[in-house]
Write a structure and sequence with these properties.
By secondary structure, the protein is an alpha+beta fold. Helices cover 27% and strands 23% of the residues. 47% of the residues are buried.
Length: 460
């Protein structure tokens, strides 16, 4: 790989004495592979692996396996995420000790969103937003796999969410950037880079921050991150927030053994991950606090359209602690959302495009209620309420491809499990079972490995 001369010259100015080592790391070393386990579903870090030091649930793999053919990935027991990006879990764990309303503004594909869902105190709500519809759908799929009932996915411009004045205690902005930190694993980032792109990205970053700033409550935290190295998109943006919005930088404790670099050329609490220093890709992160003041109450300009569903009594039994949720019907889907955040959910549905929230319990088809994939993957599923059937590895792959399988279970909806972990539903008709696994989630490849990659442990 050959780096552009302009990029090399920029590095020499930003990080004198380190540019050569960073360039060698980009050009001559392989990206590392790391995953983060889903503790809420009972996944655990296997013994004997190299841990990600700033994330208790993250660890490194020696090589990249065929993740596609691991049913536990599709079941949401782990997420494949660059180790540097897992630093957001460390930030949350250090700064947040009570339930909050957390906005992940530029959230696709969902790595930092699922990290936040795991790291935040119980009772928090995470709103994950993505402006590009196709990416927002992929984000919703990953959030659904993770299985937290305390998540919402929206598809909106930052300016739309910015109208929800003082709605969020924390706003995370992993903003679009020039992608310099991804050059080691993405040759397109190398070919697309230019000084003009850096300027364009910095201008867009300031625009995004301006649009979303009103949604952060007084005294709230802004987590700013990029996957790039230049100061224009990093330290300069932090100084912009300080000068124009009165933001106060927040210190994050780190261990010197981690190799995290400080701000470059500025006296600011900023945190730089670079592949010649840390085992991960390029990342910049800083945290700022909004000036204190009085927060405005949420205002709902119009009542969102929904209806209270009339359901068979047993449907409510499908959800753990159903008393903690409000049930509403949107189209033919019945959705359960946490009561504790009903006002924010109503404000979001009135002002924004909500494409996923809480737990989708079922799809109403005439007099029948067909359990939804969201319920199968949710940590809030009451497993004892519906029959289940355990399948072996080959049958699990067939199921995940959408193929017909047979189950030894009563007629009606049956939960398909692998290693006692839910994968989804079939409708057992007796002599056959209709596969209800969603088409958009199915494995397309026809390869048929003999055994699953052994990635995570299962603790319960």
């Amino acid at each position: 790989m050959k780096l552009k001369q302009g990029f090399v010259e920029m590095l020499e100015q930003v990080m004198p004495g380190e540019a050569e080592a960073l360039c060698r790391a980009i050009c001559e070393t392989e990206p590392c592979v790391s995953v983060r386990v889903n503790e809420a579903k009972g996944a655990c870090v296997p013994a004997g692996v190299a841990r990600v030091p700033w994330c208790r649930s993250g660890f490194y793999l020696d090589a990249r396996p065929a993740f596609t053919f691991d049913p536990l990935l599709h079941a949401g027991l782990y997420y494949v995420q660059d180790a540097s990006s897992m630093f957001v879990a460390h930030v949350i764990g250090q700064l947040i000790d009570r339930p909050v309303r957390y906005l992940d503004l530029c959230a696709a594909p969902g790595g930092k969103t699922t990290a936040a869902l795991q790291a935040l105190p119980a009772g928090s709500l995470v709103v994950a937003n993505e402006i590009v519809p196709a990416r927002a759908r992929a984000l919703a799929d990953n959030v659904m796999r993770w299985g937290s009932p305390h998540a919402v996915v929206t598809c909106n411009a930052p300016s739309q969410l910015g109208r929800l004045v003082d709605a969020f205690d924390v706003v995370a902005t992993d903003v679009p950037c020039s992608g310099e930190g991804m050059m080691r694993k993405d040759t397109e980032a190398v070919s697309q880079w230019s000084p003009a792109l850096v300027e364009q990205c910095a201008a867009r970053q300031r625009e995004i921050l301006r649009d979303i700033w009103p949604a952060l409550r007084p005294g709230g935290l802004l987590i700013y991150s990029t996957c790039t190295y230049n100061r224009q998109e990093n330290e300069d943006i932090i100084e912009y927030l300080i000068e124009h919005y009165g933001a106060t930088p927040v210190n994050i404790d780190t261990d010197t053994s981690w190799g995290v670099a400080p701000a470059m050329g500025r006296d600011l609490p900023c945190y730089r991950f670079m592949p010649h220093r840390t085992r991960g890709e390029g990342l910049f992160m800083a945290v700022l606090r909004k000036p204190a003041g009085s927060a405005q109450p949420l205002r709902i300009k119009k009542k969102p359209s929904s209806s209270s569903p009339t359901l068979p009594a047993q449907v409510r039994d499908w959800l753990l602690s159903v008393q903690d949720y409000d049930l509403s019907q949107h189209g033919d889907e019945v959705v359960a959302n946490p009561k504790a955040h009903a006002d924010l959910l109503a404000a979001l549905r009135a002002a924004c495009s909500v494409i996923y929230s809480g737990v989708t319990l079922c799809t109403v088809k005439g007099k029948n209620c067909v359990p939804h994939q969201s319920l199968a993957l949710s940590a809030a599923l009451e497993r004892s309420a519906l029959p289940s059937c355990s399948v072996n590895y080959a049958t699990a792959l067939a199921y995940l491809r959408g193929e017909a399988i047979t189950v030894d279970a009563p007629r009606g909806p049956v939960l398909v499990t692998y290693d006692n972990v839910p994968l989804g539903w079939v409708n057992n008709l007796g002599n056959r079972a209709n596969n209800l696994y969603p088409k958009g989630l199915r494995i397309v490849s026809k390869n048929n490995p003999d055994h699953a990659p052994c990635i995570v442990g299962i603790g319960k």
